[in-house]
Fold this sequence. Notes:
This protein is of the alpha/beta class. It is 37% helix and 20% strand. Helix 1 (3-15) packs across helix 4 and helix 5 (105-115) packs across helix 9. It starts with a helix and ends in an 8-residue tail after the last helix.
Amino acid sequence: MQLKRLTAFHTVAQLKSFSDAVSVTQSSQPTLSRLIKQLEDDIGVELIDRYHRPLQLTPAGRFFYEKVDTILKELDSSITLTQKMAHPPDTLNIGFVPSVLYGLLPTIISRLKQRLPNLAVHLKDISSFKQVSALKSGEIDVGFGRFAHDDPNIKQLLLRHERYVAALPNSHALAHHQTIHLSQLQDSRVILYHQTHLPAVSTDPPSNSLEADSPAQISEPLLHLFAKQSALPHQTTFVSDIQVALGLVAAGEGVTLVPDSLKSVRTEQIHYRKLIHEDATSPIYLCALQNPTHPALEIMLEVIYQLYEERGVTYRRVQ
């Protein structure tokens, strides 16, 4: 089965028009019609309903289009990654979630550039969940996120765990406490901001052994921490990102939990207080393809571990 025939069918099916496909493929309409007819003869199935206007696919054609679309996207991605492997780029594209930008990532990038002075680094704000598809498409070469993935094509390294701290407005009754138990925040409005949730442990209705407010039933990361202490807040507000959450805290609209690296943000309006819970942490993961194509990734990992050693950061080294 020729690639030209698959491409011709995919283009016509996607645009739902032979004339539009002619402009995209720079082929004549008789050529496209012939290629698609040859494809139909190859598989013995009619893919396009030629008796209706506008153009429609047969049920088999709709099914085949979805499969071909996946195959062609995978082929394009494979070609891009193969070209990168053969001709290593002088640009490193890094995806990150905003919270890691307040930690050591800027220093890591600075030191990486010292080691590789001709390397250009491009940063892209992208959620942990979307980093997987961005890696596969070649949009980014490496990602820094907060959530684990389960994808056989992605290699994920747990770099370290970062403690959460409570972010409280200056006027909050607990603002001057040295440490806080999550149960002390139950009566405060807790501001939630995570776009990616934890994998659901159970979707079954609550039973005597698995209550609705148990950690196993709660996938929102901050609420999960509260549930582990049997201290779910009575009021919550959901916002789009961590910066908005801290803005509301500064305005006295509630409290939230953030990774320790953000405790330098809005310090004029916000008090950051330690939590007594040692397991109230947010992981930092480095994600790349199982077979990375960029030569700078190994050096980046060396830089990360060296920086952790200097700063006395507890981390998990992976060879």
